[in-house]
Amino acid sequence: MRILLTGGTGLIGRELCKLWNGEGHELIVLSRQPQNVPQLCSGARGIQSLDQLNDTAALDAVINLAGAPIADRPWTKARREVLWKSRVDLTQNLVSWLANQAIRPSVLISGSATGIYGDCGDAVLDENSPTDTGDFGSKLCVAWEEAARDAETLGIRVVRLRTAPVLAPNAGMLAKMKLPFSLGLGGRLGNGQQWMPWIHLADEVGLIDFLLHCDVCTGAWNACAPQTVRNAEFVRALGLALHRPTVLPVPAALLRLALGEMSILLLGGQRVQAHCAHAASYRFQFERLDEALIDVLY
After folding, report:
1. Which pLDDT belongs to residue 57?
2. Which of 116, 118, 192, 242 could make an S-S bridge to 188, C-beta 3.0–4.6 Å?
3. 132 pLDDT above the threshold of 80
4. CA angle 52, 57, 60 (to 5 degrees)
5. DSSP-assigned letters across all residues of 159-185
């Protein structure tokens, strides 16, 4: 297959390139620094503009994972614009480009996040649950998905992948948590009762590969492990995996003061279920949090 990836130099994109390069697929990565793509993405070709593909062979699939990091700094007005442009505007431009292609790819798998549901307390959430609860993160995901859905009018199968925080070695959420927890400085966030979905990197990649080849798979899909835990349970499991105490909670008021609206990423929760993945008989490699943590930490 001939596959175009946006966000291919990111954590998930690099792993997909490693997998698909080994299977002999032709990989093209849209990047602001295309010269770095071959080294980062298992030999994939880097392009800086979609126009570079106008006179080449047709694509079989597009994987749209681009987006500036959402949790690395507070959501100032300028940062919100960066987050919006890197997700919504890029996806709109991508779909507009696809509309002008004589031969279009059969599938577009487009990124989203479980944050689309907002802070929903103890409510059990599946792919049919309401979205857009009013906070910026939720609104961003809704607009991101709507931009991708426009490709359905072009006859393209569209999958909107709502990914939970990804557990990976030396990257993502754990990269920020490992040092303080290793020093015994970790603890629950707020009261620790917020639900905290997660997914192992191997299952994120495995599910995307599954969706690429499943011709009947379409619409919204939650990418999260079967075992959803509360923040306090996650913290306790991480402490056990690192053999460290977790007795230093971070007050909710302090997080709100320091992070503003972005604090919802830490204090809000989603009790998400991957209903579509289970119905399609996708087999998770890592269902339990303790097993996933041991795998990525050691």
Report:
1. 87
2. 192
3. no
4. 105
5. EEEEEPPEEETTEHHHHHHHHHHHTT-
